[in-house]
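# nightly structure sweep
# worker-07 picked up a monomer target from the shared queue
# config: single-sequence mode, recycle default, output format = structure tokens
# input follows
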Amino acid sequence: MTQDLRYSALKKTPFHSRTSMASRTNKYYNWNGYTVPTEYSTTELEYTAARNGTSVMDLTPMGKYEITGDHAHRFVDYLVTRDLSEMKDNTVAYIIWCNEDGKVIDDGTIFKFSSTKFMLCCAVKIYNWLNDSAYGFDVSISDVTDTIAALAIQGPTSCSTLKKFGATDLEKLKPFEMREYKIDGFDILISRTGFTGDLGYELWTDPKNAETTWDNIEIAGKELKLRPFGMHALEMTRIEAGFIQTNTDFMAAEDSLRPTRMRSPYEIGMGWLVHLNKNSYFVGKKALKKEKEENTTERCLVGLDIDGDKPAHGSVIYNSKKEDIGIVTAALWSPIMKKNIALASLKRPYGIKIKENIFAEIYHPEELEYRKIWARCKVVKRQFFNPERRNKVPADLYE
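# output follows
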């Protein structure tokens, strides 16, 4: 009998034997066809480890695409809005890419090994888009998601944990740099990158090395407050950092059913990644240039400081006349900031010229009943949490 793929089991990552053993709650999430924990013990404890010790997260399901060939650098520079013509070997860059209408398809990171070899990482699957975009370029594109095991090692003591693991001189690695290590007989790529807005690293290795890597990192971080953390804790840290998430803070152009739901980089606070003056053409350049020149940007994605302590999950934002001006895309009470914060998509000029005297309509559950709260908001810098240690070189070390 032919298996119905609609009901086939989710794949297990190379770390599943360890993550499943560490999970006390049995709460899982479908990420690109893999099962990964949303929570191991409590989200609060996992968040605390990320901000005070070392947190470990299975990143294997992240889409990973190898781009090789004589035109690899030219193709990457053509694909994304950022000018990567001067990108150096063994570095990483944060990027976004658009369709021809200048609407964002996704964001991610690009790893440059050489002018003929790159790796693009993002949260969703884009293999077909990459292949279609590569027409006319001498490049080969491979989906290597299943062939690379990946871990996020984040938090104040993350560098110390990895040094004890065997990554010598790691503290000298600058943000968005990467380095190859040989540890326990396996090649391990370590990049100073992450999605928590804190000091942190990401590890990339052979799936055969996954269990050994997890075990040895656990031993190395035993005295450094190491704890595995899931998707819920990651959500808390990324909101504090002001990082955006595809199909949460904006709809990917490829997934939007209506054109009005698509967003340009200028509408999601990513205008700084659009380099209209770079010499080469990139996908969406004409449309983005027109939007910039004609000032037709309709929305903006901003940070909000909200009165009170009740998170504004999914709240509608109003002006003083009680007119709908936007919606909260992500929110939480920040334990480390001691503030009620949120990311919100607003209709301009709100968020740009008008930053105060706006309100969130919050419905807060209290014992099976909802209490309506009318909370005053103030537009603030979206990067709520940005500790000095995040970019410090050499990184702080702990015994």
